[in-house]
Each structure stands twice: as structure tokens, then as C-alpha cells.
Amino acid sequence: MWRTSSGIRVLSGAEAILFAEAFLNLLDEACEFQFEDCDFGIETFDNLTFGQKMCVLITIANGLLREDVEPVRLTAAFEAAIAVVFEHLRDSVKFEIDEPEVGTCWRRLISAAQQEIGEEDIPKVNCSDYEEWDIEIQTIEDCILWDADYLDGHLYLDRPPEESKLLRQATRIPDDYYAAIPDDLTDDQIDKQLQPLRKLCMSIIEAS
User: Fold this and answer.
1) Is the pLDDT of residue 163 over 70?
2) What are the phi and psi torsion angles at 73 (to 5°)?
3) 4 near 144, Cβ under 8 Å?
4) Residue 6: which of 172, 117, 171, 135 has the closest Cα?
5) Per residue in 164-181, pLDDT tens?
6) What is the Cα–Cα distance from 151 to 104, expressed in whole angstroms?
7) Taking 80 as the threshold, does the pLDDT of residue 94 lie above it?
8) Average pLDDT of 34-56?
9) Interatomic CA distance for residues 24 and 27, integer angstroms
10) Which entry of 75, 83, 161, 195 is 20 to 30 Å from 177 by CA?
11) How does 146-159 read in b/e, with b if 16+ C-beta sit within 10 Å?
């Protein structure tokens, strides 16, 4: 379960399939290159070690896809990891548009997720206007993330402690939101935790 902007829930239907596909695709790249020379423009995530990046990705996927997982306390690192999955989805759509021969798989998945929640004026799957698809992706992302506070760590961490505390109180941000440090998983721990998670994602995809 996850504390999303639309309530404590797990993803389901086409929304879950889209996330599972994007997550697995990101994992494949992560396991091959360990995010070397890969900058998503999200410092909260980019500045983590490989073990920490895998920790937050595993945590958010379990939370978003498994009903037997208790909702975790939201932190900048966890929410940044969700944003990274959607950034990867954006990159995948860009590639799909730039290389028409690869087909329209990602755009079809996005369209299905939007249709399921009753969105109107969805672009045709062969639409090559990236800005149109960016809007659709943002709509889906907004159903999970509350906001983009994970991008604003510098506004709080670079201030004197008392000033930072007052600002967090004013914006209702928990004291440990930016300070919480993810576990730095070893390769063995990563492999052990990824095996059931990959199976879960595949079962969601294959059930469609």
C-alpha cells in the first residue's frame, strides 16, 4: 500500500501494468549499468549510492503494487524514486517517437491507463507530439505523488536549523522528510529482494 495523493491504495488495472512495465524496464538498465553516467535531474535520487537507489526503488514498487505491505512514511528519497520511474517513462516515449520502427507500446500503455480512469481527449497512439504525451504522463504521476517537495531539499537543508524547522512547519513537511537516509543495500540483498518483485511485476503484466 502507498499513501498516494488519491488515498492509501495500490495501483491496479492499466495503471499498475504501466508502472510495472516502466519499473522493470528501468531495473534492466539499472542492473546492467548500475546507473553510471545516468542523471535524471532529480538530485535527491541522483546523489544516492547504487545500493540506496535500489533500496528506494524496491520500496516504492512493493508499496505501490502489494496490498500486504504497510504504507511507509513518505520521504524525499521515496517520492524522488517514484518520479524517476516516470522520468524513465518519459524518456522511453521520446525514444519511441524518435524511432518509429520500435512501435507504439509505451503510448498504448499510457492511453489504456488514461482511458481506465475516464480521461478524455487522449492522443491517438500514433501521435508523435511529445508534449501531448508528457501531459498524459503528468496526469498519471499526479495521481500518485502529492507534489514535488522532493526537489526542494536545498531550500531547507541549506538554512540554519531553526529557520529550516520553522519553514518545514509552515509548509507541513515532516522533520525527517529530507533527512531520512535509505539503506545502502549490498548486491546480495538487492538480488534477493528483486527476485519476488520481478515475479510480481510479470504477473501483473501477464494478467492483462
Assistant:
1) no
2) -70, 130
3) yes
4) 117
5) 665 566 566 777 888 899
6) 31
7) yes
8) 89
9) 5
10) 195
11) eeebbbbbeebeee
Q: Check pLDDT > 60 for residue 56.
A: yes
- What was the pLDDT predicted at 164? 60
Cell of 38: 545516468
Q: What is the full DSSP assignment across 89-143?
A: HHHHHHHHHH-GGG-SHHHHHHHHHHHHTT--SPPPTT---HHHHHHHHHHHHHT
Q: Go through the chain and tell me how many residues it has.
A: 208
Q: Is the pTM of this model over 0.85?
A: yes
Give the mean pLDDT of 15-41.
87
Nearest partner of 85 among 3, 36, 146, 23, judged by Cα: 23
DSSP codes joined into one string, 44-88: HHHTS-HHHHHHHHHHHHHHHH-TTSPPPPP-HHHHHHHHHHHHH
Q: Cell numbers 549499468 label which residue?
A: 33
Q: Which long-range contacts (CB under 8 A, 24 or more apart) does 4-10 make?
A: 4/64, 4/143, 4/144, 4/145, 4/146, 5/142, 5/143, 5/144, 5/145, 5/146, 5/147, 6/143, 6/144, 8/71, 10/63, 10/64, 10/65, 10/66, 10/67
Q: What average pLDDT does the chain have?
A: 90
State the DSSP H helix or E strand holding residue 167, giving kind and residue range, or none if neither.
Answer: helix 161-171
Residue 185 C-alpha cell reads as 543495500
Cell of 27: 531495473
CA separation (Å) from 3 to 17, 52, 127? 19, 21, 33
Show Cβ contacts of residue 12 under 8 Å, excluding neighbours closer than 6 positions. Answer: none
